[in-house]
Amino acid sequence: MKTFGVILLSCFALTLLIDVTNGSNSFTIDYENDRFLMDGLPFRYIGGEIHYFRVPQEYWFDRLFKMKSAGINVLQTYIEWSGHEPREGVYKFDGNYNVTRWIEEAQKAGLYVLLRVGPYICSERDMGGLPWWLMKYDLQLRRNNDIYMKYVKQWFSVLLPMIKPYLYQNGGPIIMVQLENEYGYYSACDNSYMSSLRDIVRSHLGDEIILYTTDNPGLLACGLVDDVFATIDFGTNTQPDDQFKTLRAHRASGPLVNSEFWIGNIDTWGTQHLTKPVDEVTKWLDVLLSYDKNMSLSMYMFHGGTSFGFGSGANNGGYLPRPTTYDVDALLDEAGDPTEKYRAVKNVISKYAPVSKDDIEPSPKLSIGPIDAKLEMDFTQLFSQQFWKKVDSDSPQPFEYLGSRNGLILYSTTIDFKSTSPSMLTINALRDRAYVYIDKVFQGVVSRQEKSLAIPIRAEKGSRLDLIVENQGRTYFGDEISQHKGIFGSVTLGSKTLTKWSHYFIDDWEDFTSLLKFDANVPKQHSGHNSKNALHPAILKAEFVVPFTKTYDTYFNPTNLSKGFAYLNGKCLGRYWPTNGPQITLYTPGVWLKPSPQVNQLILVELEDPPCLISNGTCQLTFDDHPTLNGETPVNW
Question: Does residue 517 lie within any of the structural domains?
Answer without folding.
Answer: no
